[in-house]
Every structure is written in structure tokens, then in C-alpha cells.
């Protein structure tokens, strides 16, 4: 009998960074054809939905997050007809499709922005974006002191003297969400894709969009930061009116269409506001991703997240990696894993021990998939892929590299095309008759981590994920619900879920004696004499 619980409350999403997933036409860049060819693999993995990073028409100044046309697929990836075929085929495999939508900004090649450039200062066309005159006697200073997330000022001056706001790259001008045209356009875009069968959207920079119309300066470095709801361009209360309208649109369609917010908020209460009744369905839990490899820290994050979200009736979501952060196999590969500070690039400390990182990544996967709510797997997590930390500078493409003056290597290391088969690059990422190398080079060692190599190896990361996802589907205690913590020594996490399921994770330096009278469902590594070794996890049943 079908469950009455909406699918998104317990779904396991697989994040597809489409440029790096599978190349179907041999040009060195992943595409829809490649993704369609790998749908049987994704079904065998056991995921419920695909979150697909932007596939829209774009000049690719920021990997597709600079959208020129939201109703067209970029030729690098295919066509709208290809997307429709993918949606239909994925549904035949029981997999839902959730693409990105990018409402904070467009590309500078978007028709609206080009019209604004042509129309000149003070024109109605410029009102759809955030244009302002500069400060100072000749307007040569930016309108305020805001800084781009990619480094440098958040303003660019045009030859006609006007400045425009871009909280990311200059090629990504911010939209003016006080303008009714912007609201109407995005409501139309949602309907365009809902009509074509997508099952929801992941909202990029969901905490952005609204700005203080006065555009005040931020406090100087070292000054008192804005309090919750006081920031002039992040997490403002006005965004929730936008999302309540979007929720009504989603509810018009059958099939439980759903939104997930990429929302960074200062407090759990501020994050909960995005998923209140009538708002968005779910929001990413970045606190879990940012936590240190420490039992006390992780338990605090889990408790705070569950308490905050249950208070508004929303499910939790859990994620370990994505296309914007260091892969967790490498993050955990340092003896000491520091907590990641929000709004700062993660700076790992100490030498890399990938054996250690892999052990911890296996344990973290079992922890994540045992917690209540939904989970997100970034492509390659199931292969244990590490960050490629030694990409040659000449191949770096993330705009952060240039905008930081070559001081921050950016995010390319987690975006390297994934390996499928074979002993040398491109490891099955591109077809045998490919005309180009992969857009980022793959390490030679990745032959050991390909899906072909790991398939059928009982101790491989891939088979661990496959087994965990199968058990998650088949075990009544898992998915949406609650947890009950079990007393455990310092450094050990242990919790129970009804009926009859226990998860134990050992983050200490000593082996932990498992409870008696429990059968092992799945373990991240060998267990001898009932002892759970450090950096290991286990699922138990009565």
C-alpha cells in the first residue's frame, strides 16, 4: 500500500553536478545524454531523486549559476526535449527530478540585463536589477561597502557612470525583488518546468533575493555584525512572502512537488522560518556538514536541528558534501577536523591520510542515513572520492580563483569528473570516440575508485552505500521519525529508532563494546569480539 507520507520527508537525493557526471557526446563535458545513460546505475544505487545543478542556457562564468535563459537548456548539456525525455525516463525508474533554480541573480547576458545596459541610467529596464549612482564628487566610489562572495567589491561601474550590484561574480547581476516583473517572471518559470514534469526545485541562495532598499553599509571589519533579520542583503524577512507564493504554485500540481532551500541563517530559529507551514518544504542542514569529527559537536547539531525543525513540522535533511565544499573524505582525512566557520572557505589543517578519511567517511555515511528525515549524496560520495587538491593552476576555472587574486583555489577540486570504468582517464566519463579531454583532469589513481572496480566488492564504499540505501528502504524504523539517545561513553554516539533499530558511531580513540543481544545489520568495517573500532559505525537490530 502506498505511504501517505510525502516522499520528500524521507527521500535520499543524489546531487548531479551535470558537467562532471557523464559525458554522452564526447566533448569532455557531462550532459543530459550522459545522465540518461546512467539512470540504471542510479536506480541500482537506490536513490529516490536527483538534484541537478543548473542546466539552463548560460555563458558559464560560474558553472551555469549565471543563467541567460531559464526556459532553455544550454547546448553543452542538450535541449529542452532532452530534458523532457530525461524526466520521463527517470520517472520510469522511480526517480524524481529536482533541478536548481537561481532567483538571486541572472547572467549579464540575460535579455533583461542587456536591455538595461542599452536603456541607460534611470530607465525602467534598469529597475529590474539593482543599479545605483556612485558615491563621491564624481560618483567614482561604489554605492556602499558590500563585498562579493567571490572576493572584491560587490559593485561594478558601467561606462555611463551607473553601478550595478553583484553579490557573486560581475557576470551575475542581482535582481531587484521589489519589482513586480521579477516576481511574475519566476512564477512563470516555475510553471514552465512543473508543466514538463519536474518534481520540485532546489533554490540557490534562498536566503538572498531581498535587500534593504536603503542599501546601507555593512559594519567595518571588527565591528558588531548585523543581528538576525538585520542584515541588509541576507536572510531578510521579506523572502518568506516570495516562498509562500511559490508554495501555492507547487501545491496546484499533483505528485507532491517540493522545494528545498539552500538557506544560510544565523540561528536555528531563522532557518526554521523557511520551512514553516505554507512555506518551503525542506532546507539544507549545513550545520551537519560543517561539524567537526567530534561526538559532542555532532550530537549538538543533530539535537538542535531536530528540535528546531520538529517545532514547525518540517523534516530534517542531512548532507556531508556538495559542489561548493571540500569532499568529506578529504575533510575527514586530517587527524583533527575543525568545525567549519560559516561564510569562510574551509582551510584543512595537517597532512592528508586518505585511509583515515575513508574510514570516517564510511562511518559518517551510516550515521547520516540512520538519522530521521532526508539525506543528500553528492555524486562520487558513494565512491569515496577525495578532493583533488593538486589540480594545476592552469586548469582552474572557478571564478573564485581569479576574483581572489589567485589566493583561493576555489571549488574545482570537488568538481572533477567522476570515474566509471577503465584503467586510465577519462575512466568511462566520456565515450571511447571522445573528441576532447574531460574539462578537469582526473587523477590516475581514480581507476581504483571507479564504479566498475567497486561493483561487487563487498568491502567497497559503493557496496556499502548500496546496502545502506536498500536497508533504509526496507527497515520500518528508518526515514522520517524521531531518535532516542542511548547512554554511551564520551566520544561515542548511540541512538535508538523504533521499531528495533540502533545506530552506534565511535568517534573516540578506543574500541567500544557493543550491546549484547543485538544482530548486526550493517557495519562500516570489520567487527571482532563485539568491539566497534575507532572511526567506525554499525547498524544493529534486536
Write the layout of secondary structure elements.
Layout: E1 12-16, H1 32-37, H2 39-45, E2 49-52, E3 56-57, E4 69-73, H3 80-92, E5 96-101, H4 111-119, E6 131-132, E7 155-157, E8 163-165, H5 180-194, E9 200-203, H6 239-251, E10 258-261, H7 268-272, E11 282-283, H8 286-290, H9 295-310, E12 317-319, H10 328-331, H11 354-370, E13 374-378, H12 399-403, H13 451-454, H14 461-474, E14 484-485, E15 492-497, E16 501-506, E17 512-513, E18 519-523, E19 531-532, E20 536-541
Parallel strand pairs: 1-2, 1-13, 2-5, 5-9, 9-10, 10-11, 12-13
Antiparallel strand pairs: 3-4, 6-8, 7-8, 14-15, 15-16, 16-20, 17-19, 18-20
Write a structural description:
- The protein is 25% helix and 14% strand.
- The strands form five sheets. An eight-stranded parallel sheet has the order 11-10-9-5-2-1-13-12.
- The mean pLDDT is 95.
- By secondary structure, the protein is of the alpha/beta class.
Give me the side-by-side strand order of the main sheet.
11-10-9-5-2-1-13-12
Low-confidence blocks of residues: none
Query: How many separate helices?
Result: 14
Structural class: alpha/beta
Q: What percentage of amino acids are in beta strands? A: 5-15%
Q: Helicity, in percent?
A: 10-25%
Q: What general form does the structure show?
A: globular
- Quantity of strands, as a count: 20
Rg calculated over all Cα atoms: 23 Å
The overall pLDDT, averaged over residues, is 95
Distance between the termini: 26 Å
Q: What about the largest sheet?
A: 8 strands, parallel
Amino acid at each position: 500500500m502506498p505511504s501517505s507520507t510525502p516522499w520528500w520527508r524521507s527521500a535520499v537525493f543524489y546531487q548531479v553536478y551535470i558537467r562532471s557526471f557523464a559525458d554522452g557526446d564526447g566533448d569532455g563535458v557531462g550532459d543530459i545524454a550522459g545522465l540518461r545513460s546512467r539512470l540504471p546505475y542510479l536506480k541500482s544505487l537506490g536513490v529516490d531523486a536527483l538534484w541537478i545543478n543548473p542546466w539552463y542556457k548560460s555563458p558559464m562564468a560560474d558553472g551555469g549559476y549565471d543563467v541567460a535563459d531559464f526556459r532553455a537548456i544550454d547546448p553543452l548539456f542538450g535541449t529542452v526535449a532532452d530534458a523532457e525525455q530525461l524526466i520521463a525516463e527517470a520517472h520510469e525508474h522511480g526517480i524524481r527530478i529536482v533541478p536548481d533554480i537561481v532567483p538571486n541573480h541572472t547572467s549579464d547576458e540575460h535579455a533583461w540585463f542587456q536591455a538595461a545596459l542599452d536603456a541607460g541610467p534611470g530607465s525602467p529596464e534598469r529597475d529590474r536589477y539593482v543599479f545605483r549612482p556612485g558615491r563621491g564628487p564624481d560618483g567614482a566610489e561604489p554605492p556602499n561597502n558590500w563585498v562579493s562572495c567571490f572576493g572584491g567589491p560587490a559593485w561594478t561601474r558601467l561606462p555611463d557612470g551607473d553601478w550595478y550590484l553583484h553579490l557573486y561574480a560581475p557576470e551575475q547581476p542581482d535582481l531587484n525583488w521589489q519589482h513586480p516583473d521579477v516576481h511574475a517572471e519566476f512564477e512563470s518559470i516555475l510553471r514552465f518546468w512543473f508543466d514538463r514534469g519536474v518534481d520540485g526545485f532546489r533554490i540557490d541562495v534562498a536566503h538572498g533575493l531581498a535587500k534593504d532598499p536603503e542599501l546601507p553599509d555593512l559594519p567595518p571589519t571588527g565591528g558588531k555584525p548585523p543581528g538576525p533579520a538585520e542584515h541588509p542583503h541576507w536572510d531578510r524577512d521579506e523572502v518568506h512572502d516570495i516562498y509562500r507564493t511559490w508554495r501555492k504554485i507547487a501545491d496546484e500540481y499533483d505528485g507532491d512537488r517540493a522545494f528545498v532551500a539552500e538557506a544560510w541563517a544565523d540561528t536555528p530559529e531563522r532557518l526554521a522560518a523557511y520551512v514553516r507551514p505554507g512555506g518551503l518544504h525542506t532546507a539544507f542542514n549545513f550545520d551537519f556538514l560543517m561539524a567537526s569529527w567530534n561526538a559532542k559537536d555532532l550530537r549538538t547539531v543533530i539535537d538542535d536541528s531536530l528540535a528546531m525543525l520538529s517545532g514547525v513540522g518540517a523534516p530534517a535533511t542531512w548532507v556531508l558534501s556538495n559542489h561548493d565544499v571540500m569532499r568529506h573524505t578529504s575533510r575527514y582525512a586530517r587527524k583533527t577536523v575543525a568545525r567549519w566557520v560559516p561564510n569562510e572557505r574551509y582551510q584543512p589543517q595537517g597532512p592528508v591520510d586518505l585511509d583515515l578519511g575513508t574510514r570516517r567517511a564510511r562511518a559518517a555515511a551510516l550515521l547520516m542515513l540512520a538519522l530521521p528525515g532526508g539525506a543528500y549524496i553528492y555524486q562520487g560520495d558513494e565512491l569515496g572520492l577525495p578532493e583533488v587538491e593538486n589540480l594545476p593552476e592552469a586548469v582552474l576555472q572557478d571564478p573564485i580563483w581569479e576574483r581572489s587574486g589567485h589566493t583561493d583555489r576555489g571549488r574545482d577540486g570537488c568538481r572533477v569528473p567522476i570515474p566509471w570504468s577503465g584503467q586510465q582517464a577519462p575512466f568511462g566519463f566520456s565515450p571511447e570516440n571522445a573528441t576532447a579531454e574531460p574539462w578537469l583532469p582526473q587523477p590516475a589513481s581514480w581507476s581504483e575508485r571507479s564504479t566498475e572496480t567497486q561493483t561487487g566488492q563487498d568491502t567497497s564504499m559503493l557496496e556499502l552505500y548500496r546496502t545502506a540505501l536498500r536497508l533504509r528502504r526496507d527497515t520500518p524504523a528508518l526515514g522520517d521519525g524521531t531518535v532516542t539517545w542511548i547512554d554511551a561513553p564520551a566520544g561515542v554516539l548511540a541512538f535508538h529508532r523504533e521499531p528495533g533499530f540502533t545506530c552506534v558511531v565511535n568517534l573516540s580513540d578506543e574500541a567500544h563494546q557493543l550491546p549484547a543481544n543485538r544482530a548486526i545489520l550493517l557495519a562500516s568495517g570489520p567487527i571482532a569480539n563485539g568491539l566497534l573500532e575507532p572511526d567506525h559505525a554499525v547498524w544493529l537490530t534486536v
